[in-house]
């Protein structure tokens, strides 16, 4: 069954994860504003991995697999009874959807031989504009991480 799951499937599912996170972020900002920052991190990571997969980044593939496995575990942890008894709510539906999609994409990224073959082929025939976009994207991520670190240092130093 996993022989049918390749690069395009992983790309579409990672984009779907970003859409699910984005829709829950909008819901959370409307009804639970205090949860916004935590959900925004999930959304930004999902968008980052999805764009990285589209640009055929090996780092995005590897980090995406790790982050998706961690997301699936984070979704399963409270649902298994360790975090209390969750009721049927929008957050529960989001957690279940996130867990299932994350586990599916992570499994494709790590275990799918068609994904590895298709990714290698796509990497070889990648157009020049994607190479330049990938370099700009990497610089953007490094600058964002640097800015976030600087903000944390300034906040820590001011206390």
Would you give an account of this structure?
The chain has 159 residues and is mostly helical. The chain folds into two domains: 2-125, Four Helix Bundle (Hemerythrin (Met), subunit A); 127-159. The chain has helices at 7-31, 36-54, 58-79, 90-111, 113-124, 128-157. α1 (7-31) runs antiparallel to α4 and α3 crosses α4. The chain is globular.
How are the SSEs ordered, and which strands pair?
Layout: H1 7-31, H2 36-54, H3 58-79, H4 90-111, H5 113-124, H6 128-157
Give me the CATH fold name of the largest domain.
Four Helix Bundle (Hemerythrin (Met), subunit A)
| SS class | mainly alpha
In round numbers, the mean pLDDT is 89
The CATH architecture category of the largest domain equals: Up-down Bundle
Question: What would you say about this model in short?
Answer:
This protein has about 160 residues and is mainly α. It is built from 6 helices and no strands.
